[in-house]
Design a protein that fits this description.
The complex is a heterodimer of chains A (280) and B (341). Chain A has eleven helices and ten strands. Chain A is α/β, with parallel strands linked by helices and 280 residues long. Chain B has 341 residues and is mainly α. In chain B, a hairpin with a 2-residue loop joins strand 1 and strand 2. The chains are: A alpha/beta (280), B mainly alpha (341). At the A-B interface, helix 3, helix 4 and helix 7 of A face helix 8 and helix 9 of B.
Chain lengths: 280, 341
Amino acid sequence: MVSVAEMPEKMTSPIIVNQSESMPQSEIERGMIEIEQLDFKYGAHQVLHDVTLSIPARAVTAFIGPSGCGKTTLLRCLNRMNDLIEIAQITRGSIRIEGIDINASNVDVVDLRRRVGMVFQKSNPFPKSIYDNVAYGLRIAGITKRTLIDEAVEKSLRSAALWEEVKDRLHVSGYGLSGGQQQRLCIARALAVEPEIVLMDEPCSALDPIATAKVEELIRQLKEQYTIVIVTHNMQQAGRCSDHTAFFYLGRLIEFDATAKIFSNPAQRQTEEYITGRFG
Amino acid sequence: MIAVASNSRRVRRIEGVIFWLLRLATYFILACASYIFLDIGIKGGRVVFTTTPPFLNLPFLTEPPQTLYVFEHEGKKLTLSDRQFRDWKTAHAGVEVETSSVAYSAGGIWPCIVGTALLVIGSMTVALVIGISSAIYLSEYSRNGRLIRLVRIAILNLAGVPSIVFGLFGFGLFVIFFGWNVSLIAGWFTLGLMVLPAIITASEESLRAVPQGLREGSLALGASKWQTIRKNVLPYALPGILTSSILGIARVAGETAPIMFTAAYAMKDEMPWQVSRWTDFFFQGVMALPYHIYVVSSKIPQNEYTERVQYGSAFVFLFLVMLIALTSIVLRERSRSRLSW
């Protein structure tokens, strides 16, 4: 793990320059997310009802709840991935990241997504070499200097705990990796552009226990530097690696609290029933 | 019991008749295809191949068409091409012979091969540029609505338009209205338009075959939509687009009707590159294989001397189209095995 202090100055990419321009307020913590009274609809079907939630910076927040409860939808709202779906729209409320309403008309969605990285449920490495996969976001951002990219690729792969496994075959296709390695490659790819927030949509759902353990360990390390929001179906996983847990049911936020509290002494009966496996 | 038995015999007889009718219908296709291929293969093969090295009738493949002169001299029947006949006359100065001439039946078909190649290259470029662009728009940018439905209907209809209508359209728009005259560029656009629906459909399919996860992955890294398409969608769709387009090449190479008013000359002495200014290159008519076959088969009086060029041209033409189709199949198989998700 490379600490913040060790980060080469050169990696102060355009992303961070942009961010400091667009964020004059000093009291707002880097990487914090505030969701307020959010309603969300797919066509006529309302998926999220009045969700209000403050996700703290540099911590792991887990979204849990039964299938179809809207947790993935909410996650995809945070980097406006739902823009891709024609009939999807936020009908009320706001999402502010570092104090800025991300759905405001003057927000550049491309810049937003650079700052809010995402790891998908199904690992989706590009059909390129391992190196090119990680370098993709940097090249997109206009970085062309070879040494810079080399450094960032190594750093990201190390952060994703993949460097030792792939350092001798950086230029072979990412498709040749195992499932767990592919998912860590996707994490490395997301980290390479130095986001402030990393969204993870059931990142371990397709992985075996050993690969899952590696990714979870990785998540625990990454929170030193990033705000992490993770959607998971796996209660133990939420318990093991998150600091805060939000429980959703039928599109509503039922309870949000410190993970230890949620798992030992939840305030709501529904939460307790879900966690103890009585429904869901 | 006897009645039942006779009934089942009748059923069995009908069964047998139907089976044979269906089987004959199927074999009929085989018979027709074999006849066409064998007829052209044997008679055309005799023209194109020779029994002595290099086993290929090079003059036929590398010379322009010439008029054939047939006459009798000192009891011998001579068949000479245009050039040979002039040489013969200078050698036999003063000798008067009564000749009959057969157009295009001597020499070769080189300008037609070149013309067809130029038409294919140009029209496929036009069709690919317009086709891929609109396929990208349709599959990546457009939102389903009434206008897009209308566009799709238009594409389907365009695919059903008979090629002669494309020919007349090209004649009206490019040749007359734009004033391009009978020219390569008019032919490019006419042929390009004709294969456009096939190219758009193939391109759209290839684009849709690229998993959505690759688009989302790229967008999530802060790539713009166009960056995503250019770097992470189009490169993976391109092999599929190109291989499907090769079948379009076979169609472009084969059609006579669209070029007959827009690009094709029955006879032209200069090769396409023999132009005084480079811009003239685009505005010259060319000879083309399918049009040449049409001309030598229906526009000149038929006799025993015309068969050579008819079958020879058809053979070369068939061979080229088969070669293109084969390339397409090989390329497709190869790209399929390389890109899989």
